[in-house]
Amino acid sequence: MTVDSNSSHHHKRIRTDGRRCVAGQRLFAAMLGGLVAMAALPSTTLAGEWPERPIRLIVPYTPAGGTDLLGRMLARRLTESLGVPVVAENRPGSDGSIGTDAVVKAAPDGYTLLIDGTSQAYNQALGKKLPYETSRDLAPIVQTANQQVLLLVNAKQPFKTLTELIDYAKKHPGKLNYGSSSNANALPMELLKSMTGINIVHVPYRGSGPMLNDLLGGQVELAMSGAAAPMPHVQAGSLRVLGIGDERRSPTLPDFPTIAEAGVPGFQTLQWSGLYAPAGTPVPIIERLNREVVQILKDPKFRAEMVAAGFDPVEGENTPQHWRDLVSSEVTKWSKIAQDVGLRAQ
Predict the structure, then answer these.
(1) 20 to 30 A Cα–Cα from 95, which one of 8, 18, 34, 195?
(2) Lowest mean pLDDT segment, chosen from 11-15, 182-186, 251-255
């Protein structure tokens, strides 16, 4: 009887422990299911944890150009402010579209960014066939800088003024060659040709570095370029500036006349750049990056570095929507210009 009673009690305890075990398994399964569900939630839920690993900043051009220079300047400062490495990576080719496409196809998680600018508008304005659509496939973050466009000649050339260049080109059609590293430089030069009636042959290059090397070496006689890359050569006396593209003299380059005042009234062009992320990147990440970059751009030391390198700091509002609106307005403007001068993507 004692044995039976103990045995009965023992079986009851086993059954009770079994129920507890099943309950524990169910609780564990529920917790595991919750973790799986959290992992499946959109990344906006976890955006507060960003960034946790290195960030790639794609530069869609060759090294040594203006976009590359500014991208590396910003990458260094973002590394300090974000606390993770921000690494500039060159992916050149096809007027910036190869690097842009790599960003478009990247995961929208804040770990792949793009620095680019004027070519995003000019490629569209020229009707270039692209595997993406900027307004649909890229999320604007912030405008990073403006950059004066310089009309440059090798200092060994006899042209001291724009008027002298135009006179020579009219007397010797097709004899002069101009280099360009992208549509952002070619389209303004084609506009200048159209407005002055001169015939200068276009020689395209894959980047600012190779183009400047040939300009310095005399393989091409002139070029239009953003100010940052050629400024050291201008300061050294190897290149001469015949005019800047903006409608007003630049406070950072006050000694250079505008192309409009140098002989071509109504001419105006300006380069600009900014940061993008793949479309679908969580809004909190976009907003965080915007705040970080805006603070960097406001820093007096960084602004001085930008000006010394040939960039004009952005003034006033600098929101993602401002950046989107600027690109859209430039597409409209240059699409009309391209149509007026009869220029299409090659």
Answers:
(1) 195
(2) 11-15
Name the amino acid, one letter, at 238.
S
pLDDT tens across 307-316, in order?
988 898 888 8
| Two tokens, residue 146 | 């403006």
Q: What is the DSSP string of 265-277?
A: TT----EEEEEEE
Closest CA to 182 of 70, 97, 277, 91: 97
Helix residue spans in 138-268 (DSSP H):
162-171, 183-196, 208-217, 231-236
Find residue 57's DSSP bridge partners. Answer: 88, 113
Query: Amino acid identity, residue 307?
Result: V
Q: Which tens digit of pLDDT belongs to each residue from 199-240?
A: 999 999 988 889 999 999 999 999 999 998 899 999 999 999
Residue 38 tokens, joined: 């959290």
Q: How many CA atoms lie within 13 A of 11 on its CB side?
A: 5
Q: Answer for the pair 251, 266: CB distance below 8 angstroms, yes or no.
A: no
